[in-house]
Recover the amino acids of this structure.
């Protein structure tokens, strides 16, 4: 059981479940597949495996760095020695192959290619190049985590429309303030291992300002799905209230709130993106 939990932890399950949930919302919004169909859930499983594989590769490549960081040394299976590097690498490869088989078999060649691209982008380009070399790593790397709705939509239609693009943009612009809040809290930890996170390279003041600027984009982006008629009044109300809360929290950080508050804002940011997509799902299933 301990080893099984260690394999599951390689996928960063909370992140990957959220990634897959955004894909569920994308499929429900597209509307061609019934949520009771096998194809629906096999596409979602494929999306989950894509995210899990990317995260597993990330932990494999960063295992030595994770062992030196306070926030990861006692929490991740490789620094703890529960899994060997070979076991983690093999798991990452198997999960990657499974994801592509599922997306190709139950989706189409295009969603399978996007899945391959996402794994390669996050596992190699982001983890091995962007993260250790540029303070813009989170902004560029955020592309991978925002692709859940796009993967699902393309898997059914072999094309794109405005709805999944807007969902992608919401997640993309949410990612930097979400992660920078955590980077502020663990600034010294990142500096110790040489990661050029924004607070380390540009300082806390610049990071706090960027968190606030990015938070402002979420209000019009989230409400655009309401004004375009994609979702109804329930989603619109949730998007308005939660986005204003997101901006208020970012303003507090900008005005030099404590680092402990930054960690609380990080937690709220997870609630924020979850409530947006839950609102989309409930609105589509019960209201629209």
């Amino acid at each position: 059981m301990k080893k099984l939990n260690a394999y599951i932890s390689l996928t960063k399950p909370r992140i990957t479940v959220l990634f897959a949930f955004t894909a569920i919302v994308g499929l429900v919004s597209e509307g061609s597949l019934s949520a009771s169909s096998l194809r629906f859930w096999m596409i979602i499983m494929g999306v989950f495996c894509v995210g899990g594989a990317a995260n597993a590769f990330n932990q494999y490549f960063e295992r030595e760095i994770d062992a030196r960081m306070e926030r990861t040394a006692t929490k991740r299976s490789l620094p703890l020695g529960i899994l060997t590097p070979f076991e983690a690498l093999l798991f990452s490869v198997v999960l990657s192959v499974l994801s592509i088989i599922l997306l190709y078999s139950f989706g189409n060649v295009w969603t399978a290619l996007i899945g391959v691209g996402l794994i390669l982008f996050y596992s190699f380009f982001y983890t091995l190049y962007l993260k250790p070399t540029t303070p813009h790593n989170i902004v560029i790397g955020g592309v991978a985590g925002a692709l859940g709705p796009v993967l699902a939509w393309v898997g059914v239609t072999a094309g794109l429309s405005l709805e999944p693009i807007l969902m992608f943009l919401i997640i993309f612009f949410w990612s930097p303030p979400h992660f920078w809040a955590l980077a502020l809290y663990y600034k010294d930890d990142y500096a110790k291992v040489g990661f050029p996170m924004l607070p380390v390279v540009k300082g806390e003041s610049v990071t706090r300002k960027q968190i606030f600027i990015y938070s402002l984009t979420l209000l019009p982006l989230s409400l655009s799905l309401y004004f375009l008629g994609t979702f109804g009044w329930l989603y619109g109300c949730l998007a308005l209230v939660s986005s204003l809360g997101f901006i208020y929290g970012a303003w507090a950080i900008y005005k030099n709130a404590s680092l402990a508050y930054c960690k609380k804002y990080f937690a709220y940011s997870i609630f924020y993106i979850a409530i947006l997509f839950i609102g989309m799902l409930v609105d589509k299933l019960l209201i629209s």
